[in-house]
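In line with agreed milestones, the collection of sequences with tokenised folds has grown. One record among many is set out beneath this paragraph:
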Amino acid sequence: MTSPASLPARAGRHCHAALNPLHSTLYFSPDLGSQLAECGITDSRTAYFAARAAPLGAVGAATVTAVFYNFSPALVARHVPAAWDLASPETVLAARLRAVDATWRRLLGEEAASSAEMAEAADLALRAAEACRPHGRPLCAAHAALPVPDAPHLRLWHAATVLREHRGDGHLTVLLREGLDPLEALVSHSASGHGPSRDWLADTRGWREEDWSAAEERLRERGLLNRHGRLTEDGSALRKEIENETDRLDRAPYEHLGADGVRRLTVLAGGFAAAAREAGAFPPALLGG
């Protein structure tokens, strides 16, 4: 294990930024919908909630709302636990892996899916994930407990997902510390100019216009948002502190991997992620396009 001082600043964040799109390809893929439709889940939002929550077991809406954090409770309740009446978590997990397989082969090609670079990236990511600890990180713990697939591209997706949820669970801890409720977190992230568009976030997370406006007003009262809906100086400083603290809570996997391993994984994962984007993995609206 390398010492914290030997890991360059933001190296873990940069590696996460390369890995996270690979994890996310599943949720924008038509293959997830087609695989789950064969299991009886035909609604796209039900498919998302089922696919991401399945490692937790047949949990109810309250649990999913808690661990996903920024979704409207009313939206979650429309899809969970009804999803488990259509397909068990075990069935969903098997369909999810088939969807990842089809998605990556389509986006990256057969040669890349079985390449030496893919296998190398998978080994590096799995080594980093060894240092993910379960305490206080329910989504990370649930995904880490799943069997590691055999195929290199599926092993990389599995590891990228564990690492993504490790960072995400830690991020929620920081949001709670800073007193940002689920919608305030979304609004401030969108207002930073670095997140997805307001319309896309409000729609996909199930929030009404009046909910969003009320959250904006709460942030204005705290001096974090101006009348134009952009972050104030204090708001920008808070979002920066949130990301820096998230980095701190997410250091362990990358310290465990070491600076050279992190650098190599960032290059490999970044290349695969760029190829996925070029192949149309993500909708333009995701980034406000």
Notes: The chain has one domain: 4-283. The two ends are 41 Å apart (CA to CA). The mean pLDDT is 95. Residues 4-283 form one domain.
